[in-house]
Amino acid sequence: MRIVKNYRNNDKLRESLNRLTEKTFGFNFEDWYKNGFWNDKYIPYSIVEDESVVANVSVNIIDINDHGVLKYYIQLGTVMTDENYRNRGYIRTLINDIFKDYGEKADGFYLFANDEVLNFYPKFGFVAAKEYQYSKEVDVISEKTVISMPMDNQKNWQKLIKAFKSNVFRGGFDMADNFDLMMFHITGYMQNSVYFDKQTETYIIADVESENVFIHAIISPNPVSIDDVINMFGGQVKTVTLGFTPADSLGWTVNEYFEDDTTLFIRGFSLDDKIILFQTLSHA
Length: 284
Fold this sequence. Notes:
alpha+beta, Aminopeptidase, 6 helices
């Protein structure tokens, strides 16, 4: 048994990680890697036996702009053990190694746990925390101006990357610099969730279902308000929900956020005085 870290360019170990991830969660990282979006901010910590990954906890370096203050957080993700190697303490070993490497560097750690392991993470000093989601009913009278911009080709990827590099839009609690993690979602299962407004050069990552719009992120090189973005979707929109924390909560309805089989755990910081939601596109 040995711990191996940050091996994305090791074809054999990366393929083994992909196999275990596919078996455990039903997806893998190969397209993300081949498309050039897997960088040094996603770092697998793996137990390797006989040149195969049998357990893993990944470090996700997440810089958060918290109402103008930059925070350096570590999100733990892709926590898994092959069924033939469970109950050997491998996850405990990996988490402790991560704490050793980042405990003095990070402003805090967090993760999203499923219901089966709610009693596990408190053993490492994690505590359950609440998130809050912002939504409102709207009455839009303007015409729809956004067009769908499918993220299924390099040309559209490069346009979005260029916009991100000059992005001026900021929510209240947003990822500050991890476009590569966003691209994991956008070039995967969310390829058809990207919209573009030509006049303002604004990209909106959103799920649109009839009269309801769920906005995951706004990327624009020009100043644009959330209300401006809502108007871009035209008069069909009646309800808007945000997958991030707005900089200004005025006019929004705030409710405690619940997700099936998912609990936020934090370590080393507190959210008791914050009405925030970790950006949906920051989940790893």
